Amino acid sequence: MADLAHASVAELGRLLEAGQVSALELADLFLGRIEAQRDLNAFLDVRPEVTRAQARAADARRAAGERGALLGVPLAHKDIFVTKDWASTAASRMLEGYMSPFDAAVVENLAQAGMVCLGKLNCDEFAMGSSNENSAYGNVLNPWDKDAVPGGSSGGSSAAVAARIAPVATATDTGGSIREPAAFTGITGTKPTYGRPSRWGMIAFASSLDTAGLMTQTAEDCALVFNAMLGYDARDSTSVYRPREDYTRGLNAPLQGLRIGVPKEFFGAGLAPDVEKAVREALKDYEKLGARLVDISLPNAELGIPVYYVVAPAECSSNLSRFDGVRYGHRAKDYTDLIDMMKKSRAEGLGAEPKRRILIGAYVLSHGYYDAYYLKAQKVRRIIADEFQQAFKQCDVIAGPVTTSVAFGFGEKAADPLAMYLADLYTVPGSLAGIPSMSIPCGFGARGRPVGLQLMANYFEEAKMLGVAHQYQLATDWHRRVPGGA
Amino acid sequence: MAWEVVIGLETHAQLSTVSKIFSGASTAFGAAPNTQASAVDLALPGVLPVLNRGAVERAIRFGLAVGATIAPRSIFARKNYFYPDLPKGYQISQYELPVVQGGSLSFMVQPAQGGAYEKTVQLTRAHLEEDAGKSLHEDFEGQSGIDLNRAGTPLLEIVTEPDLRSAEEAVAYAKTLHSLVRWIGICDGNMQEGSFRCDANVSVRPMGSDKLGTRCEIKNLNSFRFMEQAINYEVRRQIALVEDGGKVVQETRLYDPDRDETRAMRSKEDAMDYRYFPDPDLLPLEISTDWIDEIRADVDSNGLPWKVASEYVSRYEMAPSVASELTGTREKSLFFEKACIRNTDTDFPIALMSDLVFVRRVANWVVGEVSRKLNEDGGEQWPFWISSQTLGRLVLREHEGIIATKTAKELFNEFWDADRATGSCRPPDEVDAVIEKRGLKQISDTGEIEKIVDQVLAANAAQIADYKAGKDKAFNSLVGQVMKATKGKANPAQVNALLKRKLG
Q: What's the CATH fold of domain A2-257?
């Protein structure tokens, strides 16, 4: 059954349609693979009976005549999306065992399309981190090299798709939390335009940046699943009112004449040679496929990190205030009064990284510092977004590295938060601007660890960007490579 | 030294929307704890706020009524602080850019000494925000209860400039505002349930000084009487303090009506840093001029209480106090108008519309008997258990002298209580049917009354002598005896006239 396990969403859909496999068989196949690769620690909650019930329901829908490219295809959700049938913890002690009374919009949409949920995926606590070392429930291993981090915060999602224990996984990206782990694990990770996916049911980290997206094997799979996942949602005031669209419509657009902008700031001193080499190779491949490279500049992109580490902690310091032990979640056992109860519950329930960011956030929002930090950061954010608009006058998409290096080892950066924050150097500018961007595998670097190529497009041009990725994947097979043991 | 009192008021008016400001949960008062708290109100992981259009509509309505600027773009911010009954750990409010900016309110002030005068207060702003829940510390031994039914209820916080110069002015302003918010239908004004509550910022300064003194904020004044008492106490306290060489410390104080004093709650040093920032879950609130125009047309068509009141005064020569009470709510003023001015009942004499005495008689009934019954029932938001036409008919029969005032009042009370019990108001014709059936008509036949007057005079020689000796009481006693002999059905005016003539 290895072939079936390595099949893409598109292929699984066709097999289901042809009656060559049932949703229940697929569910059992992947539940078995999850069990067999438990050492990855990719999953936080697996409930086979619920998964099988969903699979049977999908088979029944198909038997009743329903058609659908995703009907019966398994997937797994990052534990940032709340689910009725699996615990929703955001990988925090604070929410250990928390059962949501409702499903996130993304979860709802994909269930509607008939996708079968395999369970909930590990991540950095409240999606804060770049290595998945901040999970309260332990590290996730990189399937390519178990000494390496799988990236973060969507490390469970990246590891699961890379190890082929889930054909597709949802993920969230606030400053690079989809693209960086996708790059580190050699898969396709896509963040759509901010406001395109609904945030309803996503446990908030930084509301003005949080974007739901996908970890897939291929750009084509991403387009297929986006078709069901993305749409306007009145429950999210930042959801953009636009009709649903077919994200597969640009897949076959030829690359002839396509202008790919290459920002010089993304190839500075901090970039590791192995990553640069693979990325430059990929850019050459694009030229061979008919695209034209255009030198562009994003002069203030380097300010992305300081801006991000003001805006995101500010929002997080407020978003995480609701976790006070009063209504749900962890409550301290011993306390003297109400306020003491809240303090102790938070002290015990929240991990070191959320606490660090809450402190930074509270500081930059405090009286007398607001203008110097938060307000200024928002102004620079606007400048960075404007620079992308200038750039897109000269090119159709932007390409560059996703990360400065290949996946690093456990503990390498954990002691130095600043070094860890710099892992997001190339992903944060796109997040601040809110544009769609993705990572596709483009080779291997030091110690055989994967390298990702970042593609960015203008607002709501996901279909174009996915097409640019798909054409590359038609010509290369990096996305078909699987780690040993998968 | 002479001291000048400086007061600014902040009023929280709970907006009368059916659902909360950012969730679909009901805003109804009095439900079992936590039965009206949705996932959004509980701040469960993953929930998001969606602004209630009705709350914005009400804020605009208020802004137009006070002549304020409606901001085409305003911002919701998060006010961050921890409290067990604040589920998100922040309150969504408007901070730097409120929806209503400026405006003013004019009203009459009647001080204890001196004549009435008109006062105009400038408004700083009015902004939308959500209410918190309630912590119940008393009901549980060693524990606290949290009720989140109120969490997320829409509030309009209306802030004045420090323009008020006495407790009387503050109360007159608050009463005018109270009547305005009910008139324009944005708030039920129920002070017991906390739908309308005021905080007063009070300071004193030497008369003639243009520098503001240090202020204290008195929180949660939920009745006009307490407001007056609390401000007066606070003014006395501050003057005594300063005259003793002390300094007023900026702080928040609570009024204790049992002891008639204010007590320090927290000082400025304890004041929290709320770390305001724009709420990233909500887009800027953008209001189109079309929408404003639509609401303006509606506000204009209903008039405004002070305009309607001054129309009553000039057109019907009504006492200003009666006119202002009649315009306390739109319901009351419409009821009054339908009962006399706009009564379209076919057998209602049109001529009466220009009978100012009749119009004023109806007005007195509405501010007197009708208001009394409403208050008995629980307040002005309760239903009228008499139709305007039925009241109009009843007052008409009294006005015509067909029934005595006392009879009219008895019938009114009887109708009100019975109709409240059955839940439907009787039609106006029943007034005449009951008068007929029970024989309640006054004796207006002069001959018949004269006969009785003669009998009474014949039997009371002593009283006649007293009256002639200048004792007015004796006259009243004679009137009373005539009334008694007619079982109260004689027209008192006729009795008076006859007695005077015969004794004259």
A: Amidase signature (AS) enzymes (3.90.1300)
